[in-house]
# Entry
Amino acid sequence: MKKIFYFLSLLSASGLLFSCGSPEKATTVTDSIPKVSPYSPKDKGNGIFAFDFNGLYFEADANNAGRISAFSLDGKNSLSGKDVNATNWGTSLWPSPQSAWGWPPSKELDTKPYKGGAKDSLSIELISEKDSLLGIVFTKNYKANPQDTSIIVTYTITNNSDKNQSLAPWEISRVAPGGLTLYPTGKGKKQNLLASLMEDKDGITWFNYDSTKMTFKDSEVPKLMHDGAEGW
# Structure
């Protein structure tokens, strides 16, 4: 049974913001934008498609599963690259739950080239091959929003298998270590190696990165597993 699900998120010039909503609410571009404009996607070759306007630079790599390879403001890229980890870099999309596919991620969805490119004067659309395990196809649409200097990200999961499936989008963005992380404190126990470094205060869970406390073995992967409140 073929079903299509749409998921929206927004990349803002002030940082990374991922949210859900309807296409009607997310689309703010007017018909006054010319067919070729400073906001139009640029084909940079080797599968790289980019937006470059108002100090924002955004890049998607069609040859590497259409993942977001750069998101920068005034020349500072928020995402880590292949130089940090040859496999886990930039922003990827995986299906959730992981129990549906195990490990490693599907090559069709996570590493193989996607088809597509510049779709129109404001958007890039990249489409995966059919996943050999789950029978699903990913479509990634990246659209420039000149009104507030952001990128609207729309993920579509198409079920091309012969069975009903319950799946959700799982977006992973790799960034440099440092800074302050926070989220509304949810129910349940915090798990994994970073749990002891978290602080709960006034309904918010805080993590202030301190390199002197990151004393883990090379074989260990420090993570935090915890549900947040308010939909996080």
